Amino acid sequence: MNDPNFGVAVPQHTVPFPSSISDAARAALERLVRADGSVLNAAFVAPSPDDLQAWLHVKTQVDGQYAVAVNALAGQSGSTVETLTGHGATIHLATPRTLTDEGRAYIDFHGGALVFGGGEACRVGAQMQADQNGVKCYGVDYRTPPEHPFPAALDDALSAYRYVLERHRPEDVVIGGRSAGGNLAAATLLRARDEGLPFPAGLVLLSPQVDLTESGDSFETNWLVDLVLPTRLTSSNLLYAAGADLSQAHISPLYGDLSGFPPTFLQSGTRDLFLSNTVRMHRALRRAGVSAELHIFEAMPHGGFGGGTPEDLELQHEISRFVQLRWPKQDAQETAPITSDGRNQN
């Protein structure tokens, strides 16, 4: 049968929250639905991709919400942060109170559907990564649409990567991002190869938005089941691409040549709208001969449960473990242990 809409007819039903997750995770999910079971976040309707004024208005509102949410998650940071400009990209350089190694660096690309999440949220996110990994974190505050569509964000990402490589050896650098940031982290490596730049020591992709065509299975199976990201991002994807082919590798890195990529950490959840993005990227990396870890968390929506649930802390610990393993060997007395919350003990 050639009908693209043919499939399994699922009777209307309620998807309950499982007992297989922590009480804190279950409470986090329950806060995202109304008493009748409808999804709070599903009420948002994205503007048309050609309504730039509407997108500017939405962007201002959402950026403010992101800043509040990230500040709440970050708590009291022990890192200092300075904003660097004039290097082809705006970078928030966060330095932890105690560095495990002056030469090591983490490059962080924030999430936000390739439109939101810049400014204050990006700055605080860099501090969180510096605290967690005990190294300098370069948070890339890349330009976003509607003012700056593709390839502006990727140009900024590559500029930031060049800046970091001028100050750190590639084997001392790990690059990562969540959601839209995962897109840019992977696309940056594709551009880096085009430019003859070396790859970093590791890559961290957290529920990465690596396929803007949204062709994966979970875009149907987790529609409205993911309480954080309940519906597709079609409009913002088209806004970002600005007429470019959504399947080209620099826009959807899933379709790029991934050979030679560094060891990669991938994470998603069984209720994540981007679950298919993540598992397909993992398989593509493995087919390319790349060492890749895939971590799927029970009932976790896009971006995690939030609020320090046991599952979120376990994920932080796994990321810290992976990042620490990417660095060149240190003397035992120089290696700081990782605590149960995933942060460097120093």
Q: Layout of SSEs?
A:
Elements: H1 23-30, H2 52-74, E1 80-84, E2 91-95, E3 105-109, H3 120-133, E4 136-140, H4 152-165, E5 173-178, H5 180-194, E6 202-206, H6 218-221, H7 234-241, E7 264-269, H8 275-287, E8 292-297, H9 310-326
Parallel strand pairs: 3-4, 3-5, 5-6, 6-7, 7-8
Antiparallel strand pairs: 1-2, 2-4
Q: What CATH first level would be assigned?
A: Alpha Beta
Topology as a string of helices (H) and strands (E) = HHEEEHEHEHEHHEHEH
- Poorly predicted sequence stretches spanning 5 or more consecutive residues: 331-346
What would CATH call the architecture? 3-Layer(aba) Sandwich
Largest sheet: 8 strands, mixed
Q: What characteristic shape results from the CA principal axes?
A: globular
Strand content: 5-15%
What structural class results from the helix and strand content? alpha/beta
Number of strand segments: 8
Tally of DSSP helical segments: 9
Question: Helical residue percent?
Answer: 25-40%
Read across the widest sheet, the strand sequence of neighbours is 1-2-4-3-5-6-7-8
Give a quick summary of the entry.
With 346 residues, the protein is of the alpha/beta class. Helices cover 34% and strands 12% of the residues. Strands 1-2-4-3-5-6-7-8 form an eight-stranded mixed β-sheet, with helices on both faces.
Question: How would you describe the overall organization of this protein?
Answer:
34% of the residues lie in helices and 12% in strands. The model is unreliable at 331-346 (pLDDT under 50). With 346 residues, it is α/β, with parallel strands linked by helices. The chain has one domain (43-329): Rossmann fold. Residues 107-303 form the Alpha/beta hydrolase fold-3 domain. Keywords: Hydrolase.
